Amino acid sequence: MEIVILVSLLSLYCDFTDAECLVVSPARLVVKHGDPASSNCSSDTPVEMGWEATQGGAGLTDNKVKILNWKVDSLTDWNSKPTCFTEGGQCQKQLNITVYKLPDRVSISYRKYPDPMVEGHQYLLQCLVQNIAPIGRLRVTFYKVSATGEQTELDTQQKSKDNIKTPENGTYTLDFTPGRDDDGAQLLCSAMLDLGPEGPQPPPVMDSNRLNTNVHYKPQITSPGCFSMSITEGDTLSLNCSANGNPAPSYDWLLPHADPNTMEERSVVTITNMAKSHSGNYTCFARNPLGNSTCTVNVEVTVNYLPIIAGLTAAVVVILLVSCFIYSWPPHRAWFLSRFLPRFWPF
Ligand SMILES: *[C@@H]1O[C@H](CO)[C@@H](O)[C@H](O)[C@H]1NC(C)=O
Ligand SMILES: *[C@@H]1O[C@H](CO)[C@@H](O)[C@H](O)[C@H]1NC(C)=O
Ligand SMILES: *[C@@H]1O[C@H](CO)[C@@H](O)[C@H](O)[C@H]1NC(C)=O
Ligand SMILES: *[C@@H]1O[C@H](CO)[C@@H](O)[C@H](O)[C@H]1NC(C)=O
Ligand SMILES: *[C@@H]1O[C@H](CO)[C@@H](O)[C@H](O)[C@H]1NC(C)=O
Ligand SMILES: *[C@@H]1O[C@H](CO)[C@@H](O)[C@H](O)[C@H]1NC(C)=O
């Protein structure tokens, strides 16, 4: 019981001494470098007080006052720590100030080797933020904006340099390995200065220039594809070879029974009136300086027997009809018999 009372008394005493002491309001300021700043120091009972500061400082007041204002028209000291004090330094309170400065410039670049970018190679992206304070509050995000406008966050970085208050240049780096889908995309970095609830809302953001990417990659045949087909004799064969690739690929067709050293330099093969001898493998080569891609179409030429069968059938029918006609007409029969049979017919 005694202990509880003692503790209660003790806390009451502490509250009392706290209340007796100075109150700085606002206790925290976030000020843009060069802007005005102001805060009040107050006491419940009138006291002689002063402000110790590199800018806007004031010595002890001649009279006892309950409130003393600290004010500067243009805050330029990066390490400003205005402190309100009473006579003899019995009590003092420091105003918590953050002086900030937005970056002069945010830029993105990459180590250009090989240039332009090549699929699968690793590149070092570098985001440079010039003349920013305080650098510990800066968050840098790398973004990729695809050719279709879709934005993807690649990485966010922040430096733990809370003790640095003067402007700094910040370099942020990221390894980037482009794929073929990244051709035509844009890269950028965005610097956001997050100064907390006392800072400007929403937190100021500054974007870098946009880096256009030109990604080189080896061809990949998209059509006609690698397959087997059959075509009827006499029909027209048309094969159009096309591939994705950067730089744009060039095409060659290797035709069946052709010397592998003599390729047709074009993307389309057209053969009218296909013959059996045109059967075989038709191979397309798509190439650019980064490599090549091939696809073989196996073509089988089939003979169409239907017209032949129909023709033969018609011929047989005609012959039969003619024979019957001749044979069924007596004069003809006689003529026929006399003309063709006497030599073999003994009557
Ligand atoms: C300081 O106190 C004065 C008088 O009460 C008031 O007018 C002023 O707005 C206060 N300044 C700040 C920064 O709170
Ligand atoms: C100033 O205020 C910030 C944010 O509330 C806090 O993180 C920091 O520690 C304070 N600095 C001092 C010296 O009290
Ligand atoms: C930041 O970079 C700029 C331009 O390169 C330079 O003029 C300036 O001195 C640098 N500042 C610091 C703090 O290194
Ligand atoms: C071949 O295909 C490509 C892509 O599909 C097309 O642009 C081109 O016009 C075609 N060429 C011919 C001769 O059909
Ligand atoms: C065509 O290529 C296939 C393999 O892709 C092979 O098996 C076949 O023998 C080739 N045909 C001719 C006629 O060369
Ligand atoms: C295709 O590329 C391969 C290596 O990927 C190479 O060995 C071959 O000679 C190339 N062929 C042609 C026809 O360029």
How many DSSP helices?
3
Strand content: 35-45%
Number of strands: 25
- SSE string: HEEEEEEEEEEEEEEEEEEEEEEEEEHH
Residue share in helix = 10-25%
Look at the helices and sheets and give the structural class: alpha+beta
What is the 3D form? rod-shaped
Task: Quote the CATH topology of the largest domain.
Answer: Immunoglobulin-like
CATH architecture of the largest domain: Sandwich
| Low-pLDDT residue spans | 3-7, 9-19
User: What assembly state would you assign to the polypeptide chains in this entry?
Assistant: single chain
CATH superfamily of the largest domain: Immunoglobulins
Mean pLDDT level: 86
Summarize the main sheet: 5 strands, antiparallel
Number of structural units classed as domains? 4
Bound molecules: 2-acetamido-2-deoxy-beta-D-glucopyranose
Describe what you observe in this structure.
The protein has 347 residues and is of the alpha+beta class. The chain folds into four domains: 2-100, Immunoglobulin-like (Sandwich), CATH 2.60.40.10; 105-213, Immunoglobulins (Immunoglobulin-like); 218-302, Sandwich (Immunoglobulin-like); 316-340, no CATH class. Helices cover 15% and strands 44% of the residues. The chain is built from three helices and 25 strands. It has helices at 2-20, 306-328, 330-340; strands at 23-25, 28-32, 37-47, 49-52, 65-72, 83-86, 92-94, 96-100, 105-110, 117-118, 123-132, 138-145, 151-158, 168-176, 186-193, 205-207, 211-212, 215-223, 227-232, 237-240, 242-246, 250-254, 268-271, 280-288, 291-302. Strands 12, 13, 15, 16 and 17 form a five-stranded antiparallel β-sheet that branches. It is rod-shaped and about 165 Å long. It starts with a helix and ends in a 7-residue tail after the last helix. The model is unreliable at 3-7 and 9-19 (pLDDT under 50). The site of one 2-acetamido-2-deoxy-beta-D-glucopyranose has 3 residues, from loops.
